[in-house]
Amino acid sequence: MTMKLYGVMRSPFVQSVVFTCYETDTEFELIPTENVVVRTPEFKAKLNPFGTMPALEDGDFTLFESRAISRYIASKADAQRAGNSLLGSTIEEQALVNVWIDVEAQTFFPPMKDAAIEWTYKLVPDAALVKSSLEKLGKILDIYEDQLTKHKYIAGDFFSLADIFNATLVYFYMRFSNPEQQGEFTNRPHVHAWLQSIYARPAWQKIIAIPETTDWSFLKKT
Amino acid sequence: MTMKLYGVMRSPFVQSVVFTCYETDTEFELIPTENVVVRTPEFKAKLNPFGTMPALEDGDFTLFESRAISRYIASKADAQRAGNSLLGSTIEEQALVNVWIDVEAQTFFPPMKDAAIEWTYKLVPDAALVKSSLEKLGKILDIYEDQLTKHKYIAGDFFSLADIFNATLVYFYMRFSNPEQQGEFTNRPHVHAWLQSIYARPAWQKIIAIPETTDWSFLKKT
Questions:
Q1: B143 shares contact with chain A (CB less than 8 Å)
Q2: ipTM metric
Q3: What does the pLDDT look like over B164-201, one tens digit per residue?
Q4: C-alpha–C-alpha distance, residues A117 and A112, integer Å
Q5: For range B71-98, the mean pLDDT
Q6: How many independent structural domains does chain A possess?
Q7: Are residues A140 and A175 in the same domain?
Q8: Domain match, B71 and B173 both
Q9: In this protein, which residues make up the domain named GST N-terminal (chains A, B) (predicted)?
Q10: Rounded CA separation B15/A106 (Å)
């Protein structure tokens, strides 16, 4: 039975799951699910008690949290096919993938979110918050640059879920940030080359080819 | 060779790794590592470029991020022994463990941290932030209560890393919060019973038996 993925493609968290499906040749059906739907009692009872997207339905088995969904899809794919694992191929590789997934979730995402939300959604951005967020982001990206000087991908010399989660968030951020914010990424040569190599992957090209059905006009800067 | 774990026991993130070691009978040596040490260039170059604890050294292999370290220790233990896995025993169980680890990291921790930091560290707590954090926490704990009404542990009817990470954070929070904040946990019978069952485990009893070497006097409320 084909997995059902609930969410809308404008969400970077939905995109990271779709990216994982395409990389692993996992069939899925996307069920468009706007915010009003995920907040219903039916959605919460069946798919995700927290009422957020994405959520996954695989037969009788349901799941939420994008990183957990992607890990599940990668695990199932590993059990069914030969080839590279997006989870890492040894206990050590798996551990390094987990490190850089946690860095993305705990350290990288918060200042990106603060900077992007202030700039994109607020009529009068909190200049001090944007400044402190960009300073934090710069320090983190210096560490990414150093890591990517030593390795082709963020967890090592192999493509993994850690690249998928990090790069999908950056793509979203780049779209809704100003040139100064974008410069944090484009001015670092290894970070820039790493991102370009991920966005050139056939799986990502398929994602950005999906017709845009979201009305972004509620954002002041678009 | 015995693993070396760098950090101090007052950190709930160090505690969650030690908890994992005790649950899996993994030998380790704790190297006390105060903030001043983790910020040195030597520590950053060798163990964690972000300069936080805990960090792990296992022969030539090093690792940081507490959840990634615990997953690694559990994976190595799985490869070496029979018995229950802290990671889940099937692909589905593993996926559910991952869900509730991500819920802890992404949803549960932020409002707990906001409420506890305001109350514990600030001379004049931001009353509005404490109030909104407690409201968020209450809604999340209603979902935990519902989950724990259906299952013995947070990810299902088996003890896992998701219980370790969640309960370790709560213990820290309970110690540094006021009665109103603590009531969010003690007033929900299934949440309360779940936490008590975890704190009764021999592994947790070993952790709280470690002599307290931290001077907490910098906290205004102690």
A1: yes
A2: 0.90
A3: 999 999 998 888 777 878 889 999 999 999 999 999 99
A4: 8
A5: 93
A6: 2
A7: yes
A8: no
A9: 1-81
A10: 18
Q: Does B79 contact A at CB distance below 8 Å?
A: yes
- Which chain B residues are closer than 8 Å to A102 by Cβ? 65, 67-68, 105
Q: Do residues B130 and B115 touch, judged by C-beta distance below 8 A?
A: yes
Whether residue A54 is preceded by a cis peptide bond, meaning omega within 30 degrees of 0, is yes
**CB-based contact (8 Å) between A188 and chain B?**
no
Best mutation target among A98, A143, A149 (most B Cβ atoms within 10 Å) is A98
- Based on the domain organization, do A34 and A110 belong to the same domain? no
Residues of B in contact with A156 (CB under 8 A): none
A115 lies in the same domain as A49: no
List own/partner pairs for B133-138 with CB under 8 A and 24 or more apart.
B134/B180, B134/B181, B134/B184, B136/B111, B137/B108, B137/B111, B137/B112, B137/B181, B137/B184, B138/B184
Q: Which 8-state DSSP code applies to residue B159?
A: -
- pLDDT per position as a tens digit, A167-186: 999 998 888 777 878 889 99
- pLDDT one-digit tens code per residue, A118-140: 777 777 888 888 889 899 999 99
